[in-house]
Amino acid sequence: MKSQKVSRPELGKWSLWRLFAADSSIRPHLPPTRKFSMTSLKRFLESYGMVYLKPSAGYGGQGIIKVWQTEKGYSYVRVKGETHRRASFTDLYNSLKRYCFTGNGYIVQKAIDLAHVDGRPFDIRLMMMRQKGAWRYIGALAKVAGENSIVTNYLRSKGQILDIEAALQRSELFDTETVAQIMRDMIRLGYKVCRRFDKYKTYWQIGLDLGVDKRGKVWVIEENTGPAHFLFRKLPDKSIYRRIRSIARLRRKK
After folding, report:
1. What is the pTM of this model?
2. InterPro entries this protein is in (predicted)?
3. In 46-194, which ranges are E strands?
4. Are residues 174 and 207 in the same domain?
5. Is 213 found in the same domain as 160?
6. Using CA atoms in the order 51, 56, 59, 62, what is the torsion angle rounded to 10 degrees?
7. What is the per-residue pLDDT across 162-188, written as a single tens digit (0 to 9) for each?
């Protein structure tokens, strides 16, 4: 099988956030986000205590930095590395700016307190594909972060793929009725995001990374216009993967 070409939208994370934030039905599901600067970092840490710094043009979990306040100052960790500690905000900022003013810059984003499976956070890949010109929900899975990883990207964190409903149930936070409601909320949000995306550019597939916090609220984390299909092959039930590949083959024949 040929390797799947991974693409990403030309818009960076900040421009995409603004695109979606302009829709009043999507904005409540977006983590507070700003361009990285000394002012935005300080304000977000004071307001939320923990943030993620993400490269605006990055994808696949690359370059992400987790930053949080501690009793003795501040700490940060890059993807899956060691924890660095700084006593003052000035020291913290001076350490981070060498990463965050490279390339197309970084964003600072409130950290969402994601639901966990076996002590590890997970997010959800929601697969949306276009059929006969209309968006269709195809399926979803859970991406559980690998050991000591701050990202849930399967390859980068060496994590685990689970059935989505099983992951929500194993989190031990939600009963059966709540799990069903979360699934409905995710699918409804998936359609809204894809239709909003159409105002920027028309794609034939979008893989949405969604987070569920410990209260059951659904958040939009990232949008992927070249989502990895092989993730769905990791599920015990291969029907979603087969459907994805079938739609992809039909598109190639056009």
Report:
1. 0.89
2. YheC/D
3. 50-55, 65-70, 73-78, 83-86, 106-110, 116-117, 120-131, 134-144, 160-163
4. yes
5. yes
6. -60
7. 999 999 999 988 999 999 999 999 999
